[in-house]
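User: Okay, second chain of the day. Same drill as before: sequence in, structure tokens out.
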Amino acid sequence: MGGSAVVVGGGIGGLSAALGLRLIGWEVTVVERAPVLADAGAGISLHANGLRALDALGVGEAVRAAARPQYTGGTRTPGGGWLARMDGAALERELGTPIVGIPRAVLHRLLRTALPAEAVVVGAEVTSVDHSDPARVRIPLGDTVLDADLVVAADGVNSRLRARLFPDHPGPAYSGSTVLRAITERPVDLRTDFELTWGKGAEFGHIAFADGRAEWHAVLNSPVGVRHSDALAEMRRRFGDWHAPIPALLEATRPDAVLHHDINELATDLPTFTAGRIVLLGDAAHAMTPNLGQGACQALEDAATLAGALATERTVDSALTRYDTERRPRSQSVARAARQAGRMGQQLTHPLAIAVRNTALRLAPSGATVRTILRHADWTPPSLD
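Assistant: Same drill. Structure tokens below.
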């Protein structure tokens, strides 16, 4: 079964969906409202499920070549004590790959360059769709109208298409946490590939990259909308006395490199990921907190699953039913687990609760961290050959 599709949104999920659809013989146009695809962003960790999806989409080898495996690291206290160690080698034995770290901009560029340039339209905004015809979708786009067999809504946590399709849904909700992050300007001497450090209502972490630079992030309990005139100075004030290499990571960062976003999520599950010939994908469908590192991985799973369903089902409608059946329970379950991980991790503030959690982590068996990751990362994509 072939057809034509319009993908709304040129982020990781949208580009991945386009790659999958093209692999199974569909004509695809990606519409992105930003005037330039600037390959911006900080860093990202990809678990085995995300890497397997990228393999199915045909870009896994290129992503692995640009990424740094995460073999060492874990979770620490602000004073430097270890709460839990990460065993990347054990994950590799179980899943065939460790977790890898890569700049988000590099991943985005690899996805984009795997598509023909003419398949991506920038500086154009989709604000509405006409899906009154059960077999076709019409998309007004400036002075033209695109006709397609399928529209993939991959327009992010603040998806306008989701709001139109589900007007009674409350939409994204503030999680209670805000995140500041940046990539260092120069390489930093790091002893581990990945770390998280939990303090009172705060988390600081880093992801090491193949070129020696690193991404760091700071997640804070905060009222919504709070911003700082000098974000880097605020990070030095909050985290300057935490263990090494945190001060060095901040020292290696330019003030204008710090990004600051409130963390919003779809705390209320959608009843379906499809509406006629429109399908929701990625954050538009299941925006989640970053506490499990699964947001992008779930979008990549969406893309591979959608392509697999369309490749094997007899009709578009049956393919979308299968996509919803397979993706909605899993992605919403991962989102709930991420929310709970945040509440038991970074968001804790009561000293007794923090002490109990830390003691439990220290006493947990050595394989507990691996088993926790396996619960979400052990996923097999469909074949798109």
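The chain has 13 helices and 18 strands.

User: Thanks, on to the next one.
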